[in-house]
Amino acid sequence: MYLASKSPQRKALLEALGLDFEIVLPDYDEVDEAGLLPAQLVEQHSRGKALSVAARVAPLMPGRPVLGVDTLVYAGGRALGKAHDEATAREYLRCMSGQVHVVYSGITLVSALPQGHAEHEELYNLTGEIETVAGQEVVIDTRHATTDVRFARIDDAEIDAYIATGEWRERAGAYAIQGRASAFVEEVAGDYTNVVGLPVPLMVEMLRETGLWPPREWGSTQDCLFRY
After folding, report:
1. Global confidence as pTM
2. Which residue of 68, 77, 79, 203 has the fewest C-beta atoms within 10 A of its own C-beta?
3. How many separate domains does the chain show?
4. Residue 70 known to be catalytic
5. CA distances from 72 to 80, 83, 115, 199, 207 (A)
6. pLDDT tens track for 162-203
């Protein structure tokens, strides 16, 4: 598959699953549209990322979809994306201290439309919308996952120490649950991998429904490629 993300966490999760994939960075302007709910925001951005890459690598080959993912944290009545400076990261962590926040991830798969689908539609489980991208008909399937995370109360000294590590950079909600911020977590209700940045159970469900799971590459070792 093609991974429309530079996230090292998503790369690591796909590698752990033994998937053969190529990283292609999306040409997509991630601007939040006013009035959208968190689930709608992550779905919109995951779709935009995936379609951007699908247009770049077109035509898509059967069995090689594009995967787009977007994650945000919802806390204190607002969406917390990636903090771009220390002050914002500190504000995010204070907002989540002693509270339950919700992690949302949108996930989009863009797949080549199977040949002969019109003549033998009953043979195909085409979950999603059929659209044309770069002159090719594709199937676009977009969904989202949610996970509740409870933080312990963390004081300013702990927050300052965490900020100093730099681990918060490029992380939704300004923390990495699989890193030092695991010390802040009291409870996770739902899919842990979603908090890391890629809801693996949902992705597997979507791949299974399109006949792409289990992956053909299981049993062989592949290195991922990186395309700028």
Report:
1. 0.89
2. 77
3. 1
4. yes
5. 6, 11, 36, 12, 23
6. 999 999 999 999 999 999 999 999 999 999 999 999 999 999
